[in-house]
Design goal:
Elements (H helix, E strand, L loop, with lengths): L1 H18 L7 E7 L3 E2 L5 E9 L5 E11 L2 E3 L6 E4 L3 E10 L4 E10 L3 E13 L6 E14 L7 H13 L6 E13 L11 H7 L3 E9 L3 E5 L10 H22 L3 E5 L12 E5 L4 H13 L8 H8 L8 E6 L4 H14 L3 E5 L4 H7 L2
Parallel strand pairs: 2-10, 13-14, 13-16, 16-17
Antiparallel strand pairs: 1-3, 3-8, 4-7, 4-9, 5-8, 6-7, 9-10, 11-12, 14-15
Helix pairs in contact: 4-5, 4-8
Length: about 375
């Protein structure tokens, strides 16, 4: 009996020693969303990969994953979730063989605009006797962008109808001096700069270049996220703005209207710290996806004041364009500035304010 007990103790000591030799640097973890960006309520997957690259078995591995609390996980009642203000901790335990790779999948949805990050996880390995734990913190930066919702509102439809009614596509077609599509005989009416002297010498008669046409953006959409007061309703007014802009841009894409989104909003992939311009040819595709992702990532931080934003807009002014100014709420100084610029340049600036559409935004909240 004594020999049997000694053998058990010896085996336990050996297993305990073995369990403490597991190199944590050889345990790898990652979590990756199946999509880079989604609509609100659209399902996506979170793929978790845990890999044991060591030559040791792991009898107990505790995984604590931080998942943004805006993400609603499928079958959450069956998961071990601890709720916190900004992130939920998803806890799970597994046994791993040596050189084993485990892939798990969670299904989720988000019903809120924004960019949601997956940055931290803790991996804990327990010893054989359950006396000690070795913990490793994993840092990464994966994210998913959620677009603002479309907004169905008769007042917004009326503004869009007025804007589209002002647009004359032909007035935005102009000759591009870079794109030469052919040559023809000189008639005496063409300007001298259109004469091609190399081609004239080759043909032994005056010949002019025929230029292809290109299209200028028809509309400048000005998104101003500068704080205009009334803090209690500020966030709802801000989110209403993003829904409005998304709806307008989508309408332009459907109508084939080229436009520029000009904004002072901060977002992670912005090209310059200040006013950023995102162009779309009104053909859908990658340019519209970029607009949606900017609207999803944009925060409430303004990178410059309203006057600097408007100065950038009117720096390359064209009377052929339409302008739409979108802001949080009406403010006397801002309205006067917009109207002053409108009179100075002799153009109409459509003004839309988030405060007028908060009721529609709140009604659509899930």
């Amino acid at each position: 009996m004594l020999f049997f007990l000694l053998a058990i103790v010896l085996i336990a000591i050996l297993l305990q020693k073995h369990s403490l030799q597991i190199p944590m640097e050889q345990i790898h973890y990652s979590i990756t969303p199946s999509k880079r960006s989604v609509e609100q309520g659209e399902e996506f997957q979170l793929k978790t990969v845990i890999e044991n690259k060591s030559k040791y078995r792991i009898p107990f591995l505790l995984i604590e994953e931080q998942i943004p609390n805006a993400i609603e996980l499928e079958n959450s009642e069956d998961l071990h979730l601890t709720l916190f203000s900004k992130a939920n901790i998803h806890r799970s335990t597994i046994f791993m063989k040596k050189r084993q790779r485990v892939i798990r999948t969670l299904h989720g949805r988000v019903y809120r605009r924004g960019v949601f990050h997956f940055r931290y996880a803790n991996l804990s390995v327990g010893d054989f006797l359950g006396l000690r734990e070795i913990t490793k913190e994993v840092e990464q930066d994966r994210s998913i962008v959620v677009f603002p919702r479309r907004m169905e509102d008769a007042r917004l439809s009326k503004v869009l109808s007025d804007v589209l009614g002002e647009i004359s596509v032909n007035s935005f077609m102009y000759e591009d001096p870079i794109l030469v599509r052919g040559y023809r005989d000189y008639t005496g009416c063409e300007p001298l700069r259109s004469i091609s002297f190399p081609m004239s010498a080759k043909r032994n008669q005056l010949t002019v270049k025929e230029f292809d046409h290109t299209r200028e953006e028809l509309v400048d959409l000005i998104l101003d996220v500068s704080y205009k007061g009334e803090f209690d309703d500020y966030l709802d007014q801000l989110e209403s703005m993003f829904c409005i802009v998304r709806t307008i841009c989508e309408n332009f894409e459907q109508k084939g209207v080229s436009y520029r989104l000009i904004t002072n909003a901060y977002y992670a992939s912005m090209e310059i710290r200040g006013v950023n311009i995102i162009r779309s040819g009104g053909c859908g595709g990658s340019s519209f996806l970029k607009v949606l992702e900017v609207l999803g990532m944009a925060s409430n931080a303004a990178m410059c004041k309203t006057d600097e934003l408007l100065q950038t807009v009117f720096m390359n002014f064209s009377q052929e364009k339409e302008f739409i100014y979108i802001s949080q709420r009406r403010e006397k100084d801002t309205e006067e500035l917009v109207n002053q610029l409108s009179r100075h340049y002799g153009t109409n600036v459509f003004q839309i304010y988030g405060e007028d559409y908060v009721d529609t935004y709140i009604k659509d909240i899930r």
